Amino acid sequence: MPGTIDRRLAELGIELPEPTRPKVAKILPTMVVDRLMFVSGMTPQWNGELRYIGKLGREFSLAEGQAAARLCTLNILAQALAALDGDLDRIARVVNVKGYVNATADFTAIPDVVNGASELLIEIFGEAGYHTRTAMGNVVMPFDVALEVDAVLEVRI
Length: 157
Prior knowledge:
alpha+beta
């Protein structure tokens, strides 16, 4: 029987990608310490296919950057789903989000890009989706992706 978050995703017409293992880094996609789940930085990929390769302010607009941030966040949720045995209702709240934006030197809408991630989490989790956040512009990113997002989630044990 689908849970509350599964129903919310269905209402919003949101499908999660398949969780993938890191391509190069020797890291875990998730780790739970006490009641906090740390989700490693996720890139904009769909079922392992990298998307949004390039820089904000050159190859991509603000709206495209927000879409990339949403895709990164869907990958965060896919990793959480796998780590929580298929039960996203175990996420009590979103604690922290960090967004790293591959941008040209004159592109200053970094926080607006990362809003794509923040707004999606609030849309899905409601009040429990509000979180603290850092948004940073970067000169270069792994695989030249436009964005990477990581998160800290409070989980029910």
